[in-house]
Amino acid sequence: MLPPVLELYVLWHPDDPAGAEIAGQVEEHFQGDAFTGLIGGAVEVFVRSRGWRGGDDVPRPIPLPAAVPPGDPAPATFVAVVPVLGPGLALACQRADGPWHRYLTTLVDGCRADPAHVGVYPMVLTEAAVHRTRLGALLDGHQRLDVAGPAGETVVERRGRELSQALAQLLRGTGGRALTVFVSHSRRADPEDQERASRLVGRVRELIADTRLDQFFDAHSIQAGSDWARVLRDNARRCALLAVRGDHYSGRKWCQEEVRLAKCAGVPIVVLDDLRRGDDRGSFLMDHVPRVRVHGDRPDDGIRRGLRKLVDECLSRALWEQQRRVAHRHRPDLRVDWWAPRSPEPTTFVDWLHRARPAGGQPPGGTVRILHPDPPLGPQERLVLDQLARAAGYADGVDVLTPRLLAARAG
Length: 411
Known about the structure:
Radius of gyration: 23 Å
Number of domains: 3
Order of helices and strands: EHHEEHHEEHHEHEHHEHEEHEHEHEH
Number of helices: 14
Structural class: alpha/beta
Number of strands: 13
Strand content: 5-15%
Largest sheet: 5 strands, parallel
Distance between the termini: 8 Å
Shape: globular
């Protein structure tokens, strides 16, 4: 339906059989729930290992965005290569004029020439493969995917999280700037709950510090003399939000505002649920976001899962935004009023209606067509949005679609 956004290639030498296992792990990661709701072609995983023309040959070339000849099918907007650096590849690259060295040099040069659209992210099987070898020298300076992670995280989990983060930063155009996690938490509770919450938030910050993620934490990130309310609002709009939800979180003014601002800005949100006695008040602002249960006595596993989920949400959000841009270029006939980055809800829909209202204030009439990632809304959820649209002057209500529903209608 649309040209591909991201093509991801896992590359390894046939004498490094662990490369096939890593390729399988990468494929499994990107077939997960965080990415299956997008339009087809958002991210495709390919492998390169076997010789193209025979056993002694290098693999088939990897098509880079700037190297696709005119007239060929539209290339992917972004290409990422994950070379698996093992002893077999190191040995094959020791000859500077050898085919494997030339193959990798082409990829490295392509990344250097077009860093906004091409990324190379090595995974190292053994340090001997990169220590004082031509392979190590060739890929020196490229971010490795297996060196930064909190204690207790498996190698597979670490590689998946680091790769998702690297790809999200590539698609967002932030270069070497790390994704920033806004840690939202309740600051006031009874003494017993406050001590428990402080320990949990402190542990969240410690585990974030063990990754390549950056973090914003109001008690330490706001400089003296700053307009703290403005700083909080600005960061809630642009950072990925990790909400540490205890018993009192939903009722706190600033917690509500941070979540609302993040939702309306379309930034990724994950809630770490640490309800002890329960939340008597609740809040509709806290719904329609991924949640991860955290056990107060052993929170590390939940925090790590929450961080991995948040990073995947960042990549999914970046892919969705790129698909919107690709659609505007290649499918001008595809009429969508609002590319909602997550399932629409009253909070975000009212914000969109307010921003979309004509300057003259006249009722717009017609239908609002909304496209959001799968899964689809339920009938009662659609009914509420339809009522809001009609109240705002859209006489025909809403037409809420997901990629699968759109494909069923043939666009």
